[in-house]
Amino acid sequence: MDEHFALFHEEQRFTQWWVWLIILVGIAPAWYIWWRYLMARTGSSTDATEGVLAWLVWLGVGVVLPVLFASMRLVTQVRHDGVYIRFVPFHWRWVKIGPERIKGVTARTYNPLLEYGGWGIRYGAHGKAYNISGNLGVELEFADGRTLLIGSRRAEELEKAIRSILSA
What we know:
Elements: E1 8-13, H1 17-41, H2 48-71, E2 73-79, E3 82-88, E4 95-97, E5 102-109, H3 112-116, E6 120-124, E7 127-131, E8 136-142, E9 147-151, H4 155-166
Parallel strand pairs: 7-9
Antiparallel strand pairs: 1-2, 2-3, 3-4, 5-8, 6-7, 8-9
């Protein structure tokens, strides 16, 4: 189903400046190793293993990691037949939660680090969470007692949309 049929649609990305600072500090050594390898190669022969390792470190940490973080996004939709979540690029398909599974829904403020150990697809003492930024979200409670927190910058609006499909 297309997002045009959604009662609620939200896309979030990693936009925190400090996350990008950590990534840049983390990839700097990979770029340095690659640069040193290229400089050492000029005018002399280097060990083939060293060259392959330099290229792999640079490609894996210096290129793939930042591209992965840049492409990450949490997409949340509420449609008439359920709540849909996609954490791109980790979910190839939508994760659907049918309204019949939802026992309760509450918009709330939470502490991502203390309650779930950070951002992303997380598992903590409070259950599972999909969050990408901020400290607002909607907690779904299921009949079996499990909970799922969906991070949202528009938590009140998301809660209202979910409640509308529960009463339909």
